[in-house]
Design goal:
Structural class: alpha/beta
Radius of gyration: 16 Å
CATH class: Alpha Beta
Strand order of the largest sheet: 3-2-1-4-5-6-7-8
Number of strands: 8
Largest sheet: 8 strands, mixed
Number of domains: 1
Number of helices: 5
Helix content: 25-40%
Distance between the termini: 27 Å
CATH architecture: 3-Layer(aba) Sandwich
């Protein structure tokens, strides 16, 4: 299975790591951003030695050196210009950090008939779900909402990444019916994980 991870920052870094550890051998990493000092508190490969380096390239090196994984690195943001890359993978991971980017990613996945595994963060809360090409799940969840920026800690990031990767694992095991149409909600302030219908 070839999996595309769009966004290789906080959420994407943990998703990449966990996908590799559950045995996903073929990854496409997409991110045009570079590591900066504000990433140090929550991004797995963010360190003094990677500041200023492209995130996708750093994670590509990690996967090749640590596990010998097949990695295709796209050191650019996903856009209309390179969206055709979505057609070349089996599954897409949403690890972006703006509503605009999420909605665009959902449109690309719908165009190429791919399942999108969504993950979103806000402060100490997060969510994850499967988004099917014909359901416009993210448009329903985020449509009309204004972007809000909250500081997010590494525990929230790692928790939501784990929820996303567990969704992938369920797909691989053929246990999709358990999770289809469900939104997983995590609130680290109250130590609660809830499942709601969407």
């Amino acid at each position: 299975m070839r999996v595309m991870v769009v966004g290789c920052g906080g959420l994407g870094g943990f998703v990449i790591e966990e996908l590799a550890r559950i045995g996903v051998r073929d990854l496409v990493l997409v991110d045009g951003d570079t590591f900066c000092e504000s990433n140090l508190n929550r991004q797995l490969e963010s360190g003094l030695d990677t500041l200023g380096r492209n995130k996708a390239e750093v994670y590509g090196e990690r996967l090749r050196n640590k596990w010998g994984r097949e990695v295709w690195v796209i050191p650019d943001f996903l856009s209309e210009r390179n969206a055709h890359l979505v057609s070349e993978v089996d599954l897409v991971m949403d690890c972006v950090d703006t509503i605009e980017a999420r909605l665009l990613l959902e449109q690309f996945c719908a165009k190429y008939d791919k399942i999108l595994v969504h993950g979103g963060l806000e402060g100490s809360c997060g969510q994850a779900c499967l988004c099917y090409p014909d359901e416009e799940t993210l448009a329903r969840l985020y449509g009309g909402k204004q972007e809000e920026k909250h500081s997010t800690n590494v525990c929230t990031v790692a928790t939501v990444a784990s929820l996303q990767v567990e969704l992938v694992r369920k797909l691989l095991l053929g246990e999709e019916e358990q999770i289809k149409g469900k939104l997983l909600l995590a609130d680290l302030d109250s130590f609660a994980i809830d499942v709601v219908d969407i």
